[in-house]
Amino acid sequence: MTSETLHFEAPRGMRDFYPEDMDVRNAIFAAWTRAARQFGFAQYDACVVESLDLLKRKSGEEIIDQIYAFQDKSGRELALRPEMTPTLARLIAARQGGLTFPLKWFALAQCFRYERMSRGRKREHYQWNLDIVGEPSLAAEAEVLACALHALSLLGLEANDARVHFSNRALLADLLLKFNIPAAHHPATFLALDKRGKIPDEEITKLLKTAGLDDSHLESVFKITGIQSLDQAQAVLEGTPASLLATRTLTALMADYGLSDRIRFDIGVVRGLGYYTGIVFEAFDVDKKFRAIFGGGRYDRLLEDVGGKPLPAVGLGFGDVVIAELLADKGKPGDHRERLDMAIGFMEDSQQPIAVQIAQALRLTGKTVEGALHAEKPRHFFARVGKGGVRQALYLGPDDLARGSVRVKDLENRTETEIPLNVIRTPERASP
């Protein structure tokens, strides 16, 4: 007679986080939060379940095929949020009259999309959202980009590791008009061009033909995608429209931050979401081995679409999946663990009360302390705590109690310091 062995796994596309995975996630979250705080962004959060109608207003009916949508027990149509921007717009619209603009907000949000999985894409991920709402100038684009690049630096990724590619939807629209491609075809053209590099150009051509573009239009679209610089764009336009001036201005603003080596004009950056209205950008590793690290742009009409008053806005989304893969590939930083300040062990059960008292006294000073839960031999204790996750170790034996002092071993440089027991048991309490 045999019994079936049960084996459960996380649902397809979802993730479990073991302690070593949490170390990486916490390091990423810490860099995101620190960068946002250093740039003066305020944190917010919201419910993970959203109204399906809100998402359809932003993305259209087709969004239903890309998300986890369902009805609750009262028949309300809901969904797990696929991104944070519609939620942000809803929050601001609800209190627009009482908020001070421009506002700078950030969120660490778990998002869900029911999509085909590939490298760097899961069906759930955590995303850092940075948004500036109520600022019409390009200073908003420069600020969110500088903040995101600072987070990359905090994670050890510099100009030789990752770079921002940027363009301007308004500039691309001006170029399309210059080649007599009507504005009515622009949204479909943007969507098709956003897929370039992900599918063959033959498939792009089919998408454009399906959207109603004729052969002359197709030739013009691919001619535009061959533009390599703003000077070339200006030569085609035979002038300096506002869209071109704005794109040049962003380059100058990023130089003020000392980040001109971190950005590059790229006419191929379009972004697939339909609500973008101006500057758009995506960050990649310099070798483009991975998907985009983060992306975003200006969306000046979204708030109006969810019942608010019109307000200019710029934002970006920075997911945890690709950056974790890139950090692992680069080995930066190699060890994400948060090290404990102290580990305390003891030889005999009779020493456990004093070990607990010492651990508690050290915790009251603000130190992180792991206390052993049972007696163990010295070699077992030091083998367990000496694997790089602890800075110092204290091991109690009968001789230590007899002489009234303990030896604290520094596990990083292998030195020892002897400290009187009465000092280490009654240290000064840390300030709150």
Question: Can you tag this structure with a few keywords?
Answer:
Rossmann fold; 432 residues; 21% strand; 2 domains; BirA Bifunctional Protein, domain 2; 16 strands; 38% helix; alpha+beta; 8-stranded mixed sheet; single chain
Structure write-up:
The chain has 2 domains: 19-330, BirA Bifunctional Protein, domain 2 (2-Layer Sandwich); 340-425, Rossmann fold, CATH 3.40.50.800. Helix content is 38%, strand content 21%. It is elongated. It is an alpha+beta fold and 432 residues long. Helix 1 packs antiparallel against helix 4, helix 5 (169-178) runs antiparallel to helix 10 and helix 6 (186-194) packs antiparallel against helix 7. It has helices spanning 19-38, 52-59, 85-94, 139-154, 169-178, 186-194, 201-210, 215-224, 230-237, 242-256, 302-305, 320-330, 352-364, 378-385, 398-403, 421-425, and strands at 42-43, 49-51, 69-71, 77-80, 103-112, 124-133, 162-168, 263-265, 279-285, 294-298, 313-319, 340-346, 369-371, 390-396, 405-410, 416-420. Strand 3 and strand 4 (77-80) form a beta hairpin.
